[in-house]
From TrEMBL:
The keyword Nucleotide-binding does not apply. This is Thiol-disulfide isomerase or thioredoxin. Keywords: Isomerase. PANTHER family: PROTEIN DIPZ, THIOL:DISULFIDE INTERCHANGE PROTEIN DSBE. The lineage of its organism: Bacteria, Pseudomonadati, Bacteroidota, Flavobacteriia, Flavobacteriales. Residues 19-163 form the Thioredoxin domain. It comes from the Bacteria. Transmembrane segments: none annotated.
């Protein structure tokens, strides 16, 4: 099946489930809501010592919007976990509109101004959204690949890390 971006392996789990980020991935820049550049490393540093769920999404992505209520439920049920939302909107205007439209303004949001193809997304084999990753308290990848907030391994990984 050919996906939206011509990726023939859409929703196919990567062959290698990585447990750390490359130097190139960590220096990848995103923009926050104010348009300020921030690197993946800076985002991870802000959440060091906490379990972090990274949610890749976009307002134009039907699968993402269908998953949104369950993602919100996951967040609500895990008050001791940090959540970061990385948007794949096609423009800053689209990013801002989606944050308003889907009541995301009070969350930790960034968007890839560089587009889908960049060092971070290439490194993590991002071939479809939504996608969820869990990063442990030491900024290592604890759960590399999930495509639904209802994936039982997400909650199992969170529970294991919070013990």
């Amino acid at each position: 099946m050919i996906g939206v971006f011509g990726v023939s392996s859409a929703q196919e789990q990567p062959k290698v489930l990585k447990t750390s980020f490359s130097k190139e991935a960590l220096v990848q820049k995103l923009e926050d809501e104010q348009g300020k550049n921030v690197t993946i490393q800076q985002i991870l540093d802000q959440h060091k010592g906490k379990v972090l769920v990274i949610d890749f999404w976009a307002g134009w992505c039907r699968d993402c919007l269908k998953a949104l209520p369950k993602a919100e439920e996951l967040e609500k049920n895990n008050p001791n976990v940090d959540f970061v939302f990385l948007s794949l909107e096609r423009s800053k205007e689209g990013f801002d509109k989606s944050l308003d439209r889907f009541n995301m303004k009070d969350k930790d949001n960034y968007w890839f101004a560089s587009g889908w193809k960049n060092n971070f997304n290439n490194y993590i084999d991002l071939n479809w959204i939504p996608r969820y990753m869990i990063v442990d308290q030491k900024s290592s990848i604890a759960k590399y690949y999930a495509i639904s907030p209802e994936d039982p391994e997400i909650q199992e990984t969170i529970n294991r890390l919070l013990k």
